[in-house]
Design brief:
Blueprint (H helix, E strand, L loop, with lengths): L2 H4 L2 H10 L6 H9 L3 H7 L13 H22 L4 H24 L15 H9 L8 H17 L2 H23 L2 H25 L3 H7 L8 H6 L3 H7 L6 H11 L4 H16 L9 H26 L4 H7 L6
Length: about 325
């Protein structure tokens, strides 16, 4: 028994005990089949949520954001590897960075778009940016924001600015996984990278962009090399490239997209492949794997809850919501 893994014994046991309360497919189906939004929302109290049955869409969003931030904060104080929770906070830092840069370019106010679930609260990140104090931010994030701002000023193309931030985000993901030293976490970052690259390849080919453009948006560090992806310039070679990988089904649906198929089904399959990888953590009794899987499960749960509740509020038919739901960890 390694000392490092042993440090996770109590925390792993606590999180495993919480797993039965996570939203599962059966509970999600009951929410979809409920007679009303109010009835659907009340079912969530079994999962530890407050009663949201009288809330409007904005209040639901705020409640879900607060739940995520509370769980991040709790595990920040309990996790032996403090960086592990950062693996899930990072995307909110980079979401905020994108929102701030685009708002500045458009002369608009981005504050309502900012999240407090990152390493740096959204309002604080905006304040440091406006006061030109990027040096007080995490180093890679600060450098990426400065570079992305320059790219946006030079090209007026927010997509190119986003590419800079996306690459920095994955650089940080790999750095955190390497520091924790868990092969499972490295595998998680690898499949996240492969999924992102597959999505980029399909979108790029769908738009009719060339290989040079595709090569510029791909992320290093996946199981499928970027040069091989860039060389896969049509739907047949793209599907073959991912054959016998965890993304085989998703790549086949990506080929269908290039022939006029559903982008929604393709993106859903990419996300489900990542979730299938995470469910492998159930076979690990204790360790950083249990924390990673729990945090990813919470993220997936919140996404599903948002989709169901805001959909029910908006009068979207349950079957339409059902078709967009990702697989759940529980």
């Amino acid at each position: 028994m390694s000392t490092k893994k042993e440090a996770y014994l109590c925390l792993s046991a606590m999180l495993r005990a919480r797993e039965p309360r996570l939203l599962n497919r059966e509970r999600a189906e009951r929410m979809l089949d409920a007679a009303s939004f109010e009835d659907a929302a009340k079912l969530l109290t079994d999962c530890g949520y407050p009663d949201m049955s009288q809330m409007k869409a904005g209040e639901v969003e705020q409640t879900l954001a607060e739940r995520r931030s509370a769980i991040f904060g709790e595990l920040d104080g309990l996790c032996p590897d403090k960086e592990l929770v950062d693996l899930f906070k990072l995307k909110y830092d980079y979401h905020n960075a994108k929102a701030i840069l685009k708002a500045e370019a458009m002369g608009s106010d981005c504050r309502r778009l900012l999240s407090d679930s990152g390493r740096v609260p959204g309002g604080k990140l905006l304040e440091l940016y406006n006061e030109d104090r990027l040096a007080r931010l995490p180093v890679i994030l600060a450098g990426a924001m400065a570079e992305a701002k320059a790219v946006l000023a030079r090209t007026a193309n927010p997509q190119l600015s986003d590419f800079v931030l996306d690459k920095a985000y994955f650089d940080e993901l790999r750095a955190v996984a390497d520091k924790v030293g868990s092969p499972f976490l490295n595998g998680y970052v690898e499949i996240l990278t492969d999924s992102a690259n597959l999505k980029s390849a399909v979108r790029t080919l769908r738009m009719g962009k060339n290989q040079d453009f595709l090569a510029g948006v791909l992320i290093e560090g996946g199981g499928v090399g970027v040069q091989r992806i860039a060389a896969a310039a049509d739907k047949d070679s793209l599907a073959a490239l991912y054959a016998s990988t965890k993304l085989e089904k998703a790549a086949a649906l990506g080929a269908d997209v290039l022939a006029g198929g559903s982008m929604t089904a393709f993106e859903q399959a990419c996300d489900n492949a990542v979730n299938a990888y995470l469910r492998g953590a159930k076979l690990v009794s204790y360790g950083p794997e249990a924390v990673c899987a729990y945090l990813a499960a919470v993220e997936g749960e919140i996404q599903a809850v948002r989709m169901i509740l805001t959909g029910r509020l908006a009068g979207v038919k349950p079957q339409a919501i059902r078709e967009r739901l990702r697989d759940l960890y529980a």
